[in-house]
Design goal:
alpha+beta, nine-stranded mixed sheet, about 30% strand
Length: about 220
Protein backbone atom coordinates (compact mmCIF):
# COMPACT_ATOMS: atom_id res chain seq x y z
CA UNK A 1 0.00 0.00 0.00
CA UNK A 2 1.35 3.46 -0.86
CA UNK A 3 0.16 7.05 -0.64
CA UNK A 4 -1.62 6.86 -4.00
CA UNK A 5 -3.59 3.68 -3.31
CA UNK A 6 -7.28 3.68 -2.44
CA UNK A 7 -7.78 3.82 1.31
CA UNK A 8 -9.69 0.77 2.47
CA UNK A 9 -9.47 0.72 6.28
CA UNK A 10 -9.99 -2.57 8.09
CA UNK A 11 -13.50 -3.11 9.50
CA UNK A 12 -14.23 -1.64 12.90
CA UNK A 13 -14.44 -4.66 15.19
CA UNK A 14 -14.06 -2.64 18.38
CA UNK A 15 -11.00 -1.20 20.09
CA UNK A 16 -8.20 -3.52 21.15
CA UNK A 17 -7.48 -1.86 24.49
CA UNK A 18 -4.12 -2.74 26.02
CA UNK A 19 -4.37 -0.31 28.95
CA UNK A 20 -7.05 2.02 30.25
CA UNK A 21 -7.37 4.31 33.26
CA UNK A 22 -8.72 7.81 33.84
CA UNK A 23 -5.50 9.35 32.53
CA UNK A 24 -4.31 7.17 29.65
CA UNK A 25 -5.39 4.73 26.99
CA UNK A 26 -3.15 2.33 25.08
CA UNK A 27 -4.69 0.81 21.97
CA UNK A 28 -3.36 -1.66 19.42
CA UNK A 29 -3.81 -0.30 15.89
CA UNK A 30 -4.45 -2.75 13.07
CA UNK A 31 -2.36 -2.51 9.92
CA UNK A 32 -3.99 -0.46 7.16
CA UNK A 33 -5.72 2.01 9.49
CA UNK A 34 -4.64 5.64 9.66
CA UNK A 35 -3.56 6.89 13.09
CA UNK A 36 -5.38 10.18 12.49
CA UNK A 37 -7.78 11.30 9.76
CA UNK A 38 -6.13 12.11 6.44
CA UNK A 39 -7.01 14.70 3.83
CA UNK A 40 -10.32 14.17 2.08
CA UNK A 41 -13.66 12.68 3.05
CA UNK A 42 -12.48 9.21 2.07
CA UNK A 43 -9.82 9.26 4.81
CA UNK A 44 -11.87 10.20 7.86
CA UNK A 45 -11.78 6.74 9.41
CA UNK A 46 -8.78 6.39 11.72
CA UNK A 47 -7.77 4.93 15.05
CA UNK A 48 -8.05 8.32 16.75
CA UNK A 49 -11.58 8.86 15.46
CA UNK A 50 -12.59 5.38 16.58
CA UNK A 51 -11.04 5.95 20.01
CA UNK A 52 -12.65 9.39 20.42
CA UNK A 53 -16.06 7.96 19.54
CA UNK A 54 -15.78 5.94 22.75
CA UNK A 55 -13.49 8.16 24.84
CA UNK A 56 -14.23 11.80 23.99
CA UNK A 57 -11.32 13.17 26.03
CA UNK A 58 -8.65 11.05 24.28
CA UNK A 59 -6.00 13.07 22.44
CA UNK A 60 -3.26 12.13 19.97
CA UNK A 61 0.32 12.14 21.28
CA UNK A 62 2.17 10.15 18.58
CA UNK A 63 1.45 8.22 15.40
CA UNK A 64 2.24 5.07 13.48
CA UNK A 65 2.41 4.70 9.71
CA UNK A 66 -0.85 3.52 8.20
CA UNK A 67 0.68 0.17 7.30
CA UNK A 68 2.33 -0.39 10.70
CA UNK A 69 0.35 -2.13 13.43
CA UNK A 70 0.72 -1.96 17.18
CA UNK A 71 0.70 0.23 20.26
CA UNK A 72 -0.51 3.81 20.31
CA UNK A 73 -0.89 5.86 23.48
CA UNK A 74 -3.77 8.33 23.94
CA UNK A 75 -3.55 10.75 26.88
CA UNK A 76 -6.91 11.83 28.28
CA UNK A 77 -7.35 15.59 28.60
CA UNK A 78 -5.11 18.57 27.84
CA UNK A 79 -2.95 18.35 30.97
CA UNK A 80 -2.11 14.69 30.41
CA UNK A 81 -1.48 15.42 26.74
CA UNK A 82 1.16 17.99 27.70
CA UNK A 83 2.83 15.57 30.10
CA UNK A 84 2.92 12.67 27.67
CA UNK A 85 4.09 14.85 24.77
CA UNK A 86 6.96 16.14 26.93
CA UNK A 87 7.92 12.57 27.83
CA UNK A 88 8.15 11.70 24.14
CA UNK A 89 10.25 14.82 23.50
CA UNK A 90 12.62 13.88 26.33
CA UNK A 91 12.79 10.28 25.04
CA UNK A 92 11.42 8.93 28.30
CA UNK A 93 9.27 6.47 26.37
CA UNK A 94 11.07 3.23 25.57
CA UNK A 95 9.55 1.82 22.39
CA UNK A 96 10.35 -1.45 20.67
CA UNK A 97 9.11 -2.90 17.41
CA UNK A 98 9.29 -6.32 15.80
CA UNK A 99 9.78 -6.71 12.06
CA UNK A 100 10.36 -9.47 9.56
CA UNK A 101 13.16 -8.45 7.20
CA UNK A 102 14.75 -9.97 4.12
CA UNK A 103 18.06 -11.76 4.54
CA UNK A 104 20.26 -12.52 7.50
CA UNK A 105 21.55 -9.60 9.57
CA UNK A 106 25.17 -9.76 10.66
CA UNK A 107 26.22 -9.04 13.30
CA UNK A 108 23.13 -10.32 15.10
CA UNK A 109 22.98 -7.20 17.24
CA UNK A 110 23.98 -3.66 16.43
CA UNK A 111 22.77 -0.28 15.29
CA UNK A 112 22.05 1.68 12.13
CA UNK A 113 23.21 5.28 12.40
CA UNK A 114 22.29 7.02 9.14
CA UNK A 115 21.00 10.61 8.81
CA UNK A 116 17.63 10.99 7.10
CA UNK A 117 15.66 13.61 5.19
CA UNK A 118 12.44 13.66 3.19
CA UNK A 119 12.80 12.70 -0.47
CA UNK A 120 10.82 15.73 -1.69
CA UNK A 121 10.20 14.69 -5.32
CA UNK A 122 8.99 11.28 -4.11
CA UNK A 123 7.04 12.10 -0.95
CA UNK A 124 6.12 10.44 1.38
CA UNK A 125 9.39 8.57 0.84
CA UNK A 126 12.32 9.44 3.09
CA UNK A 127 15.98 8.87 2.27
CA UNK A 128 19.44 8.70 3.77
CA UNK A 129 21.44 11.88 3.17
CA UNK A 130 24.84 12.44 4.77
CA UNK A 131 24.93 16.11 3.75
CA UNK A 132 21.58 17.43 5.02
CA UNK A 133 19.88 14.56 6.85
CA UNK A 134 18.90 14.73 10.52
CA UNK A 135 20.69 12.36 12.93
CA UNK A 136 18.80 9.06 13.05
CA UNK A 137 19.66 6.03 15.16
CA UNK A 138 18.08 2.57 15.31
CA UNK A 139 19.22 -0.35 17.45
CA UNK A 140 18.42 -3.88 16.32
CA UNK A 141 18.64 -7.43 17.65
CA UNK A 142 18.00 -10.58 15.62
CA UNK A 143 15.41 -12.81 17.30
CA UNK A 144 15.46 -15.66 14.78
CA UNK A 145 16.40 -16.54 11.22
CA UNK A 146 14.42 -18.73 8.81
CA UNK A 147 16.62 -20.22 6.11
CA UNK A 148 13.70 -21.48 4.02
CA UNK A 149 12.34 -17.99 3.43
CA UNK A 150 15.67 -16.21 4.01
CA UNK A 151 14.08 -13.83 6.48
CA UNK A 152 15.03 -12.60 9.94
CA UNK A 153 12.72 -11.64 12.77
CA UNK A 154 14.27 -8.62 14.47
CA UNK A 155 13.58 -6.41 17.46
CA UNK A 156 14.00 -2.74 16.59
CA UNK A 157 14.44 0.18 18.97
CA UNK A 158 14.20 3.66 17.43
CA UNK A 159 16.37 6.00 19.50
CA UNK A 160 15.29 8.91 17.33
CA UNK A 161 11.81 9.23 15.85
CA UNK A 162 12.12 10.16 12.19
CA UNK A 163 9.33 9.47 9.71
CA UNK A 164 9.71 5.95 8.26
CA UNK A 165 12.97 5.59 10.23
CA UNK A 166 12.84 1.84 10.79
CA UNK A 167 11.78 1.17 7.22
CA UNK A 168 14.53 3.35 5.72
CA UNK A 169 17.24 2.07 8.05
CA UNK A 170 16.45 -1.58 7.38
CA UNK A 171 16.31 -0.97 3.64
CA UNK A 172 19.58 1.00 3.69
CA UNK A 173 21.26 -1.84 5.57
CA UNK A 174 20.29 -4.24 2.79
CA UNK A 175 17.46 -5.90 4.73
CA UNK A 176 14.16 -4.20 3.84
CA UNK A 177 11.08 -5.06 5.86
CA UNK A 178 8.94 -7.72 4.24
CA UNK A 179 5.83 -6.20 2.65
CA UNK A 180 7.34 -2.71 2.37
CA UNK A 181 6.23 -1.43 -1.02
CA UNK A 182 8.00 1.92 -0.55
CA UNK A 183 11.44 0.64 0.34
CA UNK A 184 11.93 -2.57 -1.59
CA UNK A 185 10.60 -5.22 0.74
CA UNK A 186 7.76 -6.54 -1.41
CA UNK A 187 9.24 -7.06 -4.85
CA UNK A 188 8.00 -10.66 -4.89
CA UNK A 189 4.60 -9.84 -3.39
CA UNK A 190 5.14 -12.32 -0.58
CA UNK A 191 3.24 -10.29 2.04
CA UNK A 192 -0.17 -8.66 2.02
CA UNK A 193 0.95 -6.06 4.56
CA UNK A 194 4.03 -4.37 5.98
CA UNK A 195 5.44 -6.77 8.59
CA UNK A 196 6.28 -4.14 11.19
CA UNK A 197 4.60 -4.01 14.59
CA UNK A 198 4.92 -1.58 17.52
CA UNK A 199 5.32 -4.32 20.10
CA UNK A 200 6.14 -2.77 23.50
CA UNK A 201 6.03 0.58 25.25
CA UNK A 202 7.60 1.16 28.66
CA UNK A 203 7.40 4.36 30.70
CA UNK A 204 6.66 5.75 34.14
CA UNK A 205 3.01 6.70 34.60
CA UNK A 206 3.08 10.50 34.96
CA UNK A 207 0.47 10.47 37.76
CA UNK A 208 0.88 7.24 39.70
CA UNK A 209 4.62 6.81 39.19
CA UNK A 210 4.10 3.16 38.29
CA UNK A 211 6.37 1.66 35.62
CA UNK A 212 4.07 0.53 32.82
CA UNK A 213 5.31 -2.19 30.46
CA UNK A 214 2.66 -2.45 27.76
CA UNK A 215 2.64 -5.18 25.13
CA UNK A 216 0.68 -5.58 21.91
CA UNK A 217 0.72 -9.21 20.82
CA UNK A 218 2.43 -9.92 17.52
CA UNK A 219 0.07 -10.48 14.56
CA UNK A 220 2.72 -12.22 12.43
Amino acid sequence: MNSDSIYTPPPDCGLELVYCDEFLLAVSKPAGLLSVPGRGEDKTDSLSSRVQAEFADALVSHRLDRDTSGLLLFPRGADMHRRISLMFEKREMKKSYVALVLGRLEPAQGEVNLPMIVDWPNRPRQMVCAATGKPSLTRYRVLSYDAASNTSRVALEPITGRTHQLRVHMSASGHPIVGDTLYGGNADGRAARLLLHAHTLEFRHPVTGEILSLVSELPF
